[in-house]
Design a protein that fits this description.
The protein is an alpha+beta fold. It is built from 9 helices and 21 strands.
């Protein structure tokens, strides 16, 4: 069975059918949920879905297992919490990832909210479905590996810059002009024939206009963080493989002042200074499960050709230390990690194909590996072909 690329992403107004029911994706404003909002989502997910919530690689969350007749009351509940847009178009355009490490007074949250408002209001901006923006203007640049097409970043020399993804440098600008400049770059992308992603557009040889280019270098990028304390903000927690149930979300909502979503499938719990001791969280920074990216797999995903999460847990128990990342995908789409990985396992007809240094859709180096053999011998991932 070949994977079907649907060409759109699930939203609240426009859910997507999967193996366990409808999926609704939420993009909280500024990537943050108040304690009340988080508790409300937990209650709604338990009442109208199957109680399973997935964190996305773009700092969103997905409510799973919603029956068709449950969509309308779930939408009404989310609207009462102020968590949905006026329509599906505004929801799709408001694709902004904000650094979760912003601090009060640094202007990052205000900039992200202003950008979201401008995008939602501009009905003429017909951008591709996965086209997104990053606001990486906190004390450290942390979204370097997060998918985005237009980046507002902290410059190495101080101040802000606007950078098209795929360009090494960007244009220095003032905070008050940042939203307008980001919009101008998006409109240039469309006017110059851009179809899917900015980096591919530039790689095809389309030059940026001088007024949108520049020689300002971004600040050095930090690696992806691990669970633990975040100075002056709270505690970063990692639900196992980015999935939590409604009761865990409700417990986290009670702990702090609010929750910030991250693109690493973790949550930043504001205002706490000790690690939460809750079932379902990966606590140690060196836990091998943090090196495994895994999709829902079968039977949750209708397109998956193999179960993934049980295999991921088994692999973690003996994951070779030499492997910085393993991607376990239920099919060739590779939703959990679209980019290349040192090792990718792609499900096919109940077994797995192994790809080294590539994507789930790339030609495999080995085929037909049985899940039981992989679980019993994780060293298969590193042994010579």
């Amino acid at each position: 069975m070949s994977a079907v690329v649907r060409g759109w992403c699930p939203g609240a107004h426009r859910p997507m059918a999967s193996g366990d029911g409808l999926i609704l994706r939420l993009r909280p404003r500024g990537g943050r949920l108040s304690a009340r909002e988080a508790a409300g989502i937990a209650a709604l997910a338990a009442r109208h879905g199957n109680g399973v919530i997935d964190l996305s690689a773009r700092a969103g969350l997905q409510i799973r297992g919603v029956a068709p007749e449950g969509h309308a009351p779930l939408l009404a509940g989310l609207a009462a919490l102020g968590l949905i847009d006026a329509d599906a178009g505004a929801e799709a355009r408001r694709n902004v990832t904000l650094t979760p490490f912003w601090r009060k007074g640094d202007g990052s949250l205000e900039l992200a909210l202003a950008l979201e408002d401008a995008l939602a209001a501009d009905r003429s901006l017909a951008l591709p479905v996965k086209f997104g923006f990053a606001v990486d203007t906190g004390p450290r640049r942390v979204l370097g590996q997060t998918a985005a097409d237009i980046r507002l970043e902290r410059a190495a020399a101080g101040g802000l810059l606007l950078r098209a993804d795929g360009a090494a440098t960007g244009r220095a600008l003032r905070p008050e002009t940042a939203v307008a400049a980001a919009g101008a770059l998006a409109r240039w992308f469309l006017a110059s024939g851009g179809e899917k992603r900015m980096a591919a557009h530039l790689a095809a040889g389309v030059p940026l206009p001088p007024e949108l280019a520049g020689d300002a270098a971004p600040a050095p990028a930090d690696p992806a963080p691990a669970p633990g304390p975040v100075a002056g903000t709270g505690w970063l927690v990692a639900p196992e493989f980015g999935r939590l149930d409604a009761s865990l979300l409700a417990d986290l909502a009670r702990l702090g002042h609010g929750l910030r979503l991250t693109p690493w499938r973790m949550l930043l719990v504001e205002g706490i200074g000790i690690a939460p001791r809750l079932t379902g969280l990966v606590e140690a920074a060196d836990d091998p499960r943090l090196r495994i990216h895994v999709c829902p797999g079968a039977p949750d995903c209708a397109q998956a050709e193999a179960e993934t999460r049980g295999l991921a847990r088994a692999l973690a128990a003996g994951l070779p230390a030499a492997l910085p990342l393993v991607h376990v995908s239920g099919c060739a789409k590779g939703c959990a990690h679209p980019g290349p990985a040192p090792v990718t396992l792609a499900g096919r007809a109940g077994r797995f194909d192994l790809v080294r240094g590539g994507r789930a859709s790339d030609p495999p180096d080995r085929t037909g590996l049985r899940p039981g053999d992989l679980a019993a011998r994780p060293d298969i991932l590193t042994e010579p072909d």
